[in-house]
Amino acid sequence: MTTPTLGSILLASTEPERLRSWYEQAFGVSPNPDGFLEFGGVAILVDRRDDVAPRSAEPVRLMLNFHVADIHEAVAHLDGLGVTWVSKLELRGDVWFAALEDPDGNVIQVIELTPAYVAERRSWSPADNLRRATIATRLPAQDLDRARRFYAEKLGLEPAEERPGGLRYTGSSGWFAVFESAGRPSGEHTQMSWEVDDLDAVVAELRRRGVTFEDYDLPGLTTVEGIATVEGNYPSKGAVGERGAWFRDSEGNLLSIGEPIRSPDAGH
């Protein structure tokens, strides 16, 4: 069996609206269009289940750890919500910890890494640092407002956050940024790709929104109605190939959408 990707966490509740609202207030997060609360590369779905108790019977069987930039500020904010603390704020080695209950009795932790911990990390080798790093894509834009309109109007995407000269977008795993730049992309190679479950449906919807897909007739890469079939895939995908479609954003960045082609005997 190939190693899977942990795509999300389900937090079951008999009162999901109440629990979801608490997490929104506690950590300043809003649900994405699919209802998931996104924390960096991990998404949490608070959903109703009829086979769970109103309160967690074993509150520390699964614990969610939330890493914060300023734990004293976070603790003060949570105190303002009237939370019940399981473990008061304390420094354990080079890391600050505090544990609390959510409204369903699940125990969660807030964590802050100290400068001493970060300094120790810096002693790691470059390879160690890169293996532990978050991977992200950055796309240049000569006109950031124009790029923002393209991603909103054509792709239906809004930035999760922004800063002067930059927009950051998140997905269920990973993120990408569009940044203001005088440089212009060559558009001769794929700069970023999304992997979806139904390529035909996504391509049809983007076409409806006005996205123009590229046509290719090259050795090993021929598109039919904008979609190409490519042989081979990475072992972890559990696939024998991939279907893909390419388009350019308003700034000339070449982007793609892919769908793995599963083996007929996959899962057997």
Tell me the layout of helices and strands.
Blueprint: E1 8-13, H1 16-27, E2 37-39, E3 42-48, E4 64-67, H2 71-80, E5 84-92, E6 95-101, E7 107-113, H3 115-122, H4 126-132, E8 136-141, H5 144-153, E9 161-163, E10 166-170, E11 175-180, E12 192-195, H6 199-208, E13 217-218, E14 221-224, E15 227-231, E16 239-248, E17 254-262
Parallel strand pairs: 1-3, 4-7, 8-11, 12-17
Antiparallel strand pairs: 2-3, 5-6, 6-7, 9-10, 10-11, 13-14, 14-15, 15-16, 16-17
Explain what the structure shows:
By secondary structure, the protein is of the alpha+beta class. A hairpin with a 2-residue loop joins strand 5 and strand 6 (95-101). The protein is built from 6 helices and 17 strands. It has helices at residues 16-27, 71-80, 115-122, 126-132, 144-153, 199-208; strands spanning 8-13, 37-39, 42-48, 64-67, 84-92, 95-101, 107-113, 136-141, 161-163, 166-170, 175-180, 192-195, 217-218, 221-224, 227-231, 239-248, 254-262. It folds into 2 domains: 8-122, 2,3-Dihydroxybiphenyl 1,2-Dioxygenase, domain 1; 136-262, 2,3-Dihydroxybiphenyl 1,2-Dioxygenase, domain 1, CATH 3.10.180. Helix content is 21%, strand content 36%. 17% of the residues are buried. The strands form 4 sheets. Strands 12-17-16-15-14-13 form a 6-stranded mixed β-sheet, covered by helices on one side. Strands 4-7-6-5 form a 4-stranded mixed β-sheet.
